[in-house]
Amino acid sequence: MGESIYFAVGETDSLSRTVTAADVDAFAALSGDQNPIHLDEAYAAKTRFGRRIAHGMLVASYISTLLGTKFPGTGTIYMSQTLNFLRPVFLGDTLTVTATVTNFRSDKAIATLATIVTNQRGETILSGEAACLVRDCSRGKSVASGAAAG
After folding, report:
1. Which residue stretches of the chain have pLDDT < 50?
2. Residue 31 confidence (pLDDT)
3. Does 118 map to a domain?
4. I need a surface site. Which of 42, 47, 68, 91 has the fewest CB within 10 A?
5. What is residue 33's DSSP assignment?
């Protein structure tokens, strides 16, 4: 009998990244988002934030990093992602990205995950939900076909 994979509700993993000026500058160059709130200290100083902030989508890309490289793992394919931006991210902030399985459809090999990003003060700066195809994922537990958790 063939093997299939499964993920248990409640399984979780995380990674941490420190946001640098070089990261923000590179993201601006790659994405084309040249908003001065991200790039210009003098401009940013006059805003409600008082200093440069990271692009929200740069922060969201760290979720993709976790999903595609660590958990669920290599081979994960994004199907959808919701994003709720709750607080700004400043240069030098250390972010922890966490994904937790909230549902797993073994018949379709689709994992639904709560996605949360917190800063070094433990404040949630981004929350959302991802759905991923994990059929070719390297991290799932192997079970005999037909015996997968559902």
Report:
1. 1-2, 142-150
2. 97
3. yes
4. 42
5. -
Task: Report pTM.
Answer: 0.87
Q: Is 67:99 a contact under the CB 8 Å cutoff?
A: yes
Decide if 150 is inside a domain: no
Buried b (16+ CB within 10 A) or exposed e, 57-75: ebbbebbeebbbebbbbee
Return the DSSP state at 53: B
Query: CATH number, domain at 75?
Result: 3.10.129.10
Is 147 part of any domain? no
Structure tokens at 45: 């100083």
- Can you give the residue range of the structural domain that contains 56? 6-137
- Sequential DSSP letters for 72-125: S-TT-EEEEEEEEE-S--BTT-EEEEEEEEEEEETTTTEEEEEEEEE-TTS-EE
Token couple for 98: 């966490």
pLDDT at position 149: 41
Read off φ and ψ for residue 109, nearest 5 degrees. Answer: 55, 50
Structural domains of the chain, count: 1
Contact by Cβ (8 Å): 99, 45: no
